[in-house]
């Protein structure tokens, strides 16, 4: 007996997409499979702003004030925790590192 399991988008659960693309890495080590629309938003770096804007876990970057979604596996790479508390976005972190090094 053949299994008829259809793949669906991890985010929107759409199963009609002709092609699915890798999103973020899941705890299992596999990648979240996303439909074209959700994958495009993810690849453009707008996933949390688009799909999680009303969720908990948003913090202000201590340097520039940009909102960072700290409560989400999708954006864990987008910020660093500060020693004194708070977060700094990766853009500011890279800029601060270059300024300290004198590059």
Report on the structure:
By secondary structure, this protein is of the alpha+beta class. It has two domains: 7-44; 54-103, no CATH class. It has three helices and six strands; from the N terminus they run ββααββββα. It has helices at 36-43, 47-51, 90-101, and strands at residues 21-25, 31-34, 58-60, 67-69, 79-81, 87-89. The strands form three sheets. It has a two-stranded antiparallel ribbon. β3 and β4 form a beta hairpin. The mean pLDDT is 87. This is VAL1-3 N-terminal zinc finger domain-containing protein. Residues 50-96 form the VAL1-3 N-terminal zinc finger domain.
Spatial order of the strands in the main sheet? 1-2
Largest sheet: 2 strands, antiparallel
Class computed from helices, strands and strand pairing: alpha+beta
Percent of residues in helical segments? 10-25%
Secondary-structure element string: EEHHEEEEH
Tally of contiguous helical segments: 3
Whole-number total of structural domains: 2
Intertermini distance: 63 Å
Protein name: VAL1-3 N-terminal zinc finger domain-containing protein
InterPro entries: Zfn_VAL1-3_N
Domain VAL1-3 N-terminal zinc finger: 50-96
Pfam family, one: zf_VAL1_N
At a glance:
This protein is an alpha+beta fold and 103 residues long.
Task: Outline the fold blueprint.
Layout: E1 21-25, E2 31-34, H1 36-43, H2 47-51, E3 58-60, E4 67-69, E5 79-81, E6 87-89, H3 90-101
Antiparallel strand pairs: 1-2, 3-4, 5-6
